[in-house]
C-alpha cells in the first residue's frame, strides 16, 4: 500500500536571518519549522478550510482562506521568494495552469518547492500487475514528465531529490528483468521532491544584486550598443550608469554573457567609444575568458583583447 509523504521540502533551504517572503499552500505542517529557520521572514499561508490554521496560531503567519484549485491567490505578482506545497499538482485537472500560475507570484529569483508521487514506484507497478489502481482521483507522474511540465510552466531550472521506499520482496528485480529501467533507483523512489526556479542559477545571482529597474536600464544600454543605435551616446550613458550604481567588471561581464547575442561586435563597438575605460573593458574580457565554454568563445576574446591592446 502507498505511504504518506514525509515532509522534507525544507531540506532545499538554508536557515538564516534574511527577510524572505514565503507562501505555504495547504502544507501547513511546515509552518513551525519555517518560522524557526527564518525568524525575520514574512510567512503567508493559504488553505481551503479556515480551521486548518488553528494548530499554528503561534507561528506568526498571515493566513488566508483560499482554495488554490479554483481561486486566484490574493497577492501581487513577483511577491514571494518561495512557494511551498507538497503534492500540489496531483489533485488538479489543469496542472500546467496551476504551476504557471504559481510562477507569476514568484520573484525572478524565486523557487517553487513541491513534490509528486512517482508512478514508476514498485508499489504502484505491483498493484497494476495485480489488476488494481487506487489513484483514480489523483494525477501521478513520472520524473521526466513532471520536469517537462514545469519547464513548460515558465520555470528555468528544476532540481529533484528522491524519497525512497525499498521493497521487501524481489519485485524490483522482476521489474528490471521485464525491461523496466531503474536509473537513479527510480523504481524505489516513492516520491520526488522538487525545487523549480524561475531563473537559471547564474541569472538568479545576477538578478539578486541590483533592482529590476536597474537591470532593465542596463540591458537597454547594452542592446543599443550591440545594435549600433546611437552607440556613441549610449556608451557615454552606459559608463555614467556604471559609475552611478557601482557596477563592477565581474558582474557586468556575466550580465553581458547572458543578455548580449553578439558579444564580439558589442565589445568592439564599446571599445570604439570608450577610450578612457579600456582597462575596465579588459577586466570584463578576462572575466569572460574565465567563464568561456567553447573554443570559439576563446578565439573571439583573444581577437578583441589584441585589438584593445593596440588601442592603448
UniProtKB/TrEMBL annotation:
Gene Ontology molecular-function annotations: S-adenosylmethionine-dependent methyltransferase activity
The Methyltransferase type domain, residue ranges: 44-113
Pfam families: Methyltransf_11
InterPro entries linked to this entry: Methyltransf_11, SAM-dependent_MTases_sf
Origin: domain of life: Bacteria
Protein name: Methyltransferase type 11 domain-containing protein
Amino acid at each position: 500500500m502507498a505511504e504518506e509523504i514525509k515532509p522534507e521540502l525544507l531540506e532545499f533551504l538554508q536557515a538564516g536571518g534574511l527577510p524572505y517572503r514565503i507562501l505555504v499552500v495547504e502544507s501547513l505542517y511546515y509552518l513551525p519549522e519555517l518560522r524557526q529557520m527564518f525568524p525575520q521572514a514574512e510567512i503567508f499561508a493559504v488553505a481551503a478550510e479556515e480551521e486548518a490554521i488553528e494548530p499554528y496560531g503561534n507561528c506568526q503567519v498571515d493566513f488566508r482562506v483560499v482554495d488554490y484549485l479554483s481561486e486566484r491567490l490574493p497577492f501581487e505578482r513577483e511577491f514571494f521568494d518561495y512557494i511551498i506545497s507538497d503534492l500540489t499538482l496531483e489533485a488538479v485537472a489543469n496542472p500546467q495552469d496551476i504551476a504557471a500560475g504559481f510562477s507569476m507570484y514568484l520573484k525572478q529569483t524565486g523557487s517553487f518547492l513541491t513534490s509528486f508521487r512517482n508512478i514508476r514506484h514498485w508499489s504502484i507497478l505491483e498493484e497494476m500487475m495485480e489488476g488494481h489502481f487506487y489513484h483514480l482521483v489523483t494525477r501521478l507522474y513520472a520524473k521526466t514528465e513532471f520536469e517537462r511540465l514545469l519547464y513548460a510552466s515558465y520555470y528555468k531550472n528544476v532540481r529533484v531529490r528522491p524519497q525512497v521506499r525499498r521493497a521487501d520482496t524481489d519485485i524490483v528485480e522482476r521489474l528490471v528483468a521485464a525491461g523496466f529501467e531503474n536509473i537513479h533507483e527510480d523504481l524505489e523512489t516513492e516520491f520526488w521532491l522538487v525545487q523549480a526556479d524561475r531563473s537559471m542559477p547564474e541569472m538568479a545571482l545576477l538578478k539578486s544584486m541590483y533592482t529590476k529597474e536597474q537591470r532593465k536600464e542596463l540591458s537597454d544600454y547594452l542592446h543599443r550598443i550591440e545594435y549600433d543605435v546611437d552607440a556613441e551616446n549610449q556608451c557615454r550613458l552606459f559608463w555614467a550608469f556604471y559609475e552611478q550604481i557601482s557596477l563592477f567588471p565581474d558582474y557586468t561581464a556575466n550580465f553581458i554573457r547572458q543578455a548580449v547575442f553578439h558579444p564580439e561586435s558589442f565589445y568592439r563597438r564599446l571599445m570604439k567609444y570608450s577610450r578612457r575605460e579600456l582597462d575596465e573593458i579588459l577586466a570584463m574580457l578576462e572575466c569572460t575568458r574565465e567563464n568561456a565554454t567553447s573554443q570559439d568563445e576563446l578565439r573571439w576574446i583573444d581577437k578583441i583583447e589584441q585589438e584593445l591592446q593596440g588601442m592603448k
